[in-house]
Amino acid sequence: MADRPDDAPRVVADAGALASRVGHPDEIGAVWSIAEPERDLDANVIALPPGEAIGSHRGPALDVLVHVIAGSGTLATARGDIDLAPGLVVWLPRFSRRGFRAGDDGLRYLTVHQRKSPGSSPIPTVGVLPGPRHSPAESA
After folding, report:
1. Within the chain, how many helices (H) and strands (E) appear?
2. What tens digit of pLDDT does each residue of 10-38 get?
3. Alpha carbons 138 and 59: distance in angstroms, whole number
């Protein structure tokens, strides 16, 4: 089978550039997502400004890898908190409870998981909550 031009490996993002904006107060939530239409994986860079949080919620029916690219924070899990720092890679098993809180410098992390098949139910979304002003919210 011959290679097609769209099957060739290619750079899809500059993690250094994405990391350099850690803590920017106007950048919150998904600040980058992989855009290639023919893929088996989904990937996003999530940005949380200092003190902001994604409340505790039950994850989707997918395993998720999280790679911390900048800043610091805490991942709340059913087994306790995990301190997050650049370079750490954390596995979030499917359906596991998780909540993220950015540290004083903000937090940016890359998530990678299998792409959901067309027509399947969407992954539940969780709003980003101001950290110091709200307790973690539950998500469906």
Report:
1. 1, 8
2. 899 999 999 999 999 999 999 999 988 88
3. 11
